[in-house]
Amino acid sequence: MNAPLNRTKRNLTIAKAMAEAIAEEMRRDPSVLVLGEDIGKLGGVFGNTRGLYEEFGAARVKDTPISETAFIGAAVGMACVGMKPVVELMFVDFFGVCMDAIYNLAAKNCYFSGGQSPVPMVLMTSVGGGYGDAGQHSQCLYGTFAHLPGLKVVVPSNAYDAKGLMLSAIRDPNPVVYMFHKALQGMGWLGTVKGAINDVPEDEYLVPIGKAAIARSGKDVTLVGLGATVHHALDAAAELAKDGVEAEVIDLRSLVPLDRETVLASVRKTGRLVVADDDYQSFGVSGEIIALASEAAFPQLKAAPRRVAFPDIPIPFSPALERPLLPDAAKIAAAARATLGKA
Amino acid sequence: MAVPVVVPQDLWEEDLPGIVSAWLFEDGDPVKEGDLIAELMVEKTSYDLTAPKAGRLKILVQPEVPFQRGDVVAQLE
User: Fold this and answer.
1) pLDDT tens digit string along A180-230?
2) CATH number assigned to the domain with residue range A213-339, chosen from the 4 options 3.40.50.2000, 3.40.50.920, 3.30.1490.190, 3.20.20.10
3) How confident is the model at residue A342 (pLDDT cuts 50, 70, 90)?
4) For chain A, where do the domains classified as CATH 3.40.50.970 start and end?
5) CA separation for the pair B10, A139 (Å, rounded)
6) What is the pLDDT of residues B55-73, one digit of tens each?
7) Peptide bond between residue A257 and the one before it cis (omega within 30 degrees of 0)
8) Helix (H) or strand (E) holding A126
9) Quick check: A13 and B39 CB within 8 A?
10) Closest CA to A79 of A128, A113, A43, A28
11) Per the CB < 8 Å rule, is B64 touching A16?
């Protein structure tokens, strides 16, 4: 993607791409700093701050006590006075103890102050399950954060986007919730999805917030995914191609702002829509995308849209129970066939 | 002549097995000396493995398969 001809391919994991982006912004802008649990000497439980402590020191890369209430609140305050904190909420599941700072303070301060006091912070947080970490460490909660006005929300599915979205997020004057999926992080103990590792330029480049990507072109059915489900949708598309079905795969990349035009253009072309989301099914991203298609592309729809999401129950610890409930390529392909009347 | 890619004996301190969490090149890809070719994982800490010389990568240890420090995990041909 956009690689200059004079450079060779350099594959990175999302973890490394995130760390590289943060380091580049810290070199460029002294107001950027990082804080969170184990993000210093350890380099982050998910590897996404490796090397920062060694390069920038403890004053700008701050290990915090285990109190999200305190340090996420502190990050909001820092942002209000002009710093640019990148703060990690280790697991999105922990949002309960710091949500007031996020949705009542960070999300609304710019609006309340008539634009005089923006909150230029990045809240990076791990999402997703699939490795037996149970109901308080496996959720996605995309819909929860995307629902609240005042927060931008991004979800990278590969290392190239992870770097470009991180650079955009740090430079954005608004609070950006940067949700990275554990299964894509390139950490062995969480499983590693190969497609998430891709070529990442050393130089800075921005992936714009609010722009979806067409991960695969097709004309018969639109498969919409985000984060991990992009890769399931690509696998499903490869499976469907064996039957002569050309699926188009859309990687949302951003939830807020949502790139409605790209989704609608695809649905208007194919007339069929499947949304894959490993967040809970009800009141979330899958419903929003289907509502969008129903409102704005109804005449072009040839079949009822379908969704493949996590059922509305707490996520089980037992892998034998968890795995069958998660979206996968087979379920997405089956849903696509159903829209084609081939079920 | 093929050069072995050895996991350095001092890459981590304790006598624990590691795994390759991700090969960053495909089997058969050309790599340059110093290229980051794999990420290794020990317990929950990750380490980098770089190419000791330029050559064509032959992967000997697949992801998730345990090895010890000092083991050969690939060759450069």
Assistant:
1) 999 998 876 676 788 999 999 999 999 999 999 999 999 999 999 999 999
2) 3.40.50.920
3) confident
4) 12-199
5) 37
6) 999 999 998 899 999 999 9
7) yes
8) strand A122-127
9) yes
10) A113
11) no
Taking CA A310 as the corner, what is the angle to CA A147 and CA A296, rounded to the nearest 5 degrees? 50
- Intervals of CATH 3.40.50.920 along chain A: 213-339
Number of domains in chain B: 1
Q: Domain span at residue B61? A: 3-76
Q: Name the catalytic one among A24, A88, A137, A231.
A: A137
ipTM attached to this prediction: 0.79
What is the fold of A12-199?
Rossmann fold (3.40.50)
Hey, of A187, A190, A202, which one would you mutate to test binding to chain B, going by the most B CBs within 10 A of its CB? A187
Q: How far is it, in rounded angstroms, from Cα A95 to Cα B35? A: 38
CA distances from A288 to A85, A153, A232, B34 (A): 30, 15, 20, 47
Active site residue A68: yes
Residue type, A172: D
Residue appearing with tokens 């006075």: A81
How does residue A7 score in pLDDT terms, banded at 50, 70 and 90? low
A188 and B64 in contact by Cβ < 8 A? Answer: yes
Q: Do A187 and B44 touch (CB under 8 A)?
A: yes
B-chain CB neighbours of A196 within 8 Å are none
Q: Summarize pLDDT for A103-126 with one digit per residue, the tens.
A: 999 999 999 999 999 999 999 999
Residues on chain B bordering chain A, Cβ-to-Cβ distance under 8 angstroms? 19-22, 24-25, 32, 35-36, 39, 41, 44-46, 63-64
Q: Looking at residue B72, which CATH number applies to its domain?
A: 2.40.50.100
For residue A84, how many C-alpha atoms fall within 13 Å in the half-sphere facing its CB?
20
Cβ contact A15–B41 (<8 Å): no
Pair A8, B32: CB distance under 8 Å: yes
CB contact residues (below 8 A), chain A span 35-74, against chain B: 42-43, 45, 47, 50
